[in-house]
Amino acid sequence: MEYLVYDIIRFFWIQIVSIFFREIAQGNAHSIPKEGPVIFVVAPHNNQFIDPLILLKHSPRRVYFLIAASSLKRSIIGFYGRLLRGIPVERAMDHKIKGLGTITYSPNSENPLQILGLNSKFSSQFNVGDRISISNGKAQHKVTKIVSDTELLIDFPVTSTDALTALASEGGCPYDSVPALDQNKMYKAVYDRLNANECIGIFPEGGSHDQSKMLPLKIGVCLMALGASAANPNLKINIVPAGLNYFHPSKFRSRAVIEFGNPIPIDPELVEKFKQGGAQKREASSALLDTISEALKQVTLNTPDSDTMQLIHTCRRLYNPSRHSISMRDQVELSRRFVRGYMKLKDDPEVSQVIERVMDYKKELEYLGIRDHQVSKLHMNRFDALALLVWRLIWLLLTGSVALSGAILNLPIFIIAKTVASIKAKQALAASTVKLKANDVVATWKVLVALVFIPTLYNLYALLYAFYARDFVFLFFLVPSPNSSFIFCYMQGLILATVISMASLSFGERAMDILKSLKPLIAVIANSDDSTKKIIAEREDLSNTITQLVNELGPQLYPEYFNKVRKSEDQKNDSSLRKRNSNKGDKDTTSDDEKPTASRFSIPSITPKFLSSISSVSSIDFLGTGTSKRRLSRKYKGIAPPADSNQDSSEIKPGYLSRLFNISNMFQVDWFGNSQDSNMTELADYKESLKYSNVFTSTDEENALSSASHSRNSSVDSSSGADISKTLGMSPLTPADK
User: Fold this and answer.
1) What CA–CA distance (Å, rounded) separates 128 from 132?
2) Comparing C-alpha atoms, which of 573, 618, 612 is closest to residue 599?
3) C-alpha distance from residue 411 to each of 22, 225, 403, 418, 463 (Å)
4) Transmembrane stretches, by residue range (predicted)?
5) Same domain, 189 and 65
6) 494 and 512: one domain?
7) Closest residue by Cα to residue 31 from 203, 240, 235, 202
């Protein structure tokens, strides 16, 4: 019965998270063991209670999370946490007591382990084994001896620069007493789940945060894995790293990616060391923690700060040697590789020069009020831009009018959710020492507020509808209102409110896409042709420079993959040369009439009928309803595309009817605009169209994307014979270090 309840609640929350996010991509989920005990280690913990929902959505197995006992005491979180069989964890910081007086410390004193208090009561506020938190968590140390009310000894000298600065301030600094807690009950619950061959989920960073890098991992997950293995030698535990990557974590209808690494088995040698206790136990735990940390780094993005993260994303967009858009999952993987390259080569003169150019390029984009992906839309004159602007404004009016009704219905929820989330973020920021802006709690509170107010508001709408609708002659289904029951009218109102909201959500997204696409058109109209041509040329030159730099420096980071791809390319070239030589003497017997021509394509059903009629005699994409790759394939169906697939559509010779409209240039542009920030395609497009440079991907990696052909259990790569057990925890897209 408990599994049935779990599955129902899980299904409910999956629907909630699917509504909140526009798209959630996953990678390497096939590597998750189908049976046996599994510990999911998830990082970074950037979205509080939304993070576990992402894992619930994409894990093929039931996952039971460790959750703070203080969170289980909340009404909504606690209710659903218990139904999802969460394991409560008492956190020492939830029981901390504000210390009386202040403390001082001198690292140059005769005893560097001594902390002195001013007007303090150490004897009554501390016990041996408790921890003292210095200046709101800037450092924590275990209390080894209480000498008096104003003196105690700690386990090791204070080394934190922030903590030393606070301790050296005049009058000392504040402190907290953090009691030692008995966690035996929690560990027993974890061992019981693992012995039952179930899966548990844990966020080893501890609390949630909004930094651009992972926080230091806690040792608890290692104690759980090694402790359970030591207690039951027959237990075969696998640790599966899961990396969460958000494009806009707190934004409604944004996108996210979850990437699973390869399972990490527990080394029997570490288990034996763990059993010995003492220093051997600490050594075994530290070794496993290092393995987990490295595995998580392979499936997460980690940069020193948010500015570096934005820089990496810009460079990743500029690097596009294949001239194809790539899937969301592969964008994250490519960003990870750029981070690694940047951190190792940022002091290189060539790299530094390119970084400066990228920063200047970003400033120019800010001045024009556009984004990088919109630069390609600037390639038109003012008349073209004005005509297209008018056309899109018409579509914006149509789609926006449909979305307006739902927006009005849900406006109270938007206002309340945003207000409550802002208040909770300020509270969380004040209580935390690791949050920057507390953006990690915003999405959670938006969802919780909506969860409470949407049913309440919709029921109110249904009641008002039922009350006033009985005064009208006819309602839906041609049922006379005076003869309809109140319940019947109430249900009609409830269904109507839901349908309007869902329809407005779909049309609202289209309207927002159109609205975002207006910026480059306005930029073309408002700025001179020279300025737009300059930014286009600058982007093209910068893109070529970055691509060439990657091809030159990339082999230093990925030498094994560079050699594989170079060998693969040589084989392809040889094969292609032999094929051309074999056909060298063949005559072309195909007549002009039989030669393939650009095929006509049909516009989707959303396209107006008159545009569909025109499209039957034209090879131009009118509304830009597909990705750039799909639009290109429709234009060149049956014939080979041009060598440069990034070629502007104005250079492609259109059908004869479209030549009549060259004056308006309306057939060579994307009507709705590709306004999505990340310019994404489906993962299936990757295998057909995506080809990075010689450095960043290989044929082996492309094949690794196919979960159907990927072996779940084998530790040997069938194509190369290489032992992949050395790459435990890594994504199949991530090359192993040698």
Assistant:
1) 11
2) 618
3) 20, 48, 12, 11, 18
4) 389-417, 445-465, 485-507
5) yes
6) yes
7) 240
Mapping DSSP to helix (H, G, I), strand (E, B) and coil, where does residue 539 land? Answer: helix
Q: Using alpha carbons, select from 151, 142, 166, 159 the residue that is nearest to residue 116.
A: 151
Strand partners, 254: 21
pLDDT per position as a tens digit, 156-196: 899 888 889 999 888 899 999 999 888 899 999 999 999 99
Domain check: are 197 and 283 in the same one? yes
Cα separation, 469 vs 634, in Å, equals 50
Say what the pTM is.
0.71
DSSP state letter for 584: T
The three-class DSSP label of residue 131 is strand
Tokens representing residue 32 in the block: 């998750």
Q: Please say which residue of 272, 297, 322 terminates a domain.
A: 297
Contact 5, 11 (CB under 8 A): no
In this structure, the answer to whether residues 25 and 114 fall within a common structural domain is no
Give, rounded to a whole angstrom, the gap between the first and last alpha carbons of the chain. 49
Among 65-74, 339-348, 665-674, name the one with the lowest average pLDDT. 665-674
C-alpha 528, offset from chain centre: 38
Same domain, 98 and 66: no
Q: Which one of 234, 267, 297 terminates a domain?
A: 297
What is the tens place of the pLDDT at every residue in 298-350?
A: 899 888 888 888 888 888 888 876 656 677 777 888 888 888 888 888 888 88
Three-state SS for 612?
helix
Give yes or no: residues 115 and 207 share one domain.
no
Q: Is the dihedral of CA 101, 102, 108, 113 positive or negative?
A: positive
- Collect all residues with Cβ–Cβ distance below 8 Å to 524 and sequence separation of at least 6: 378, 380, 381, 382, 385, 532
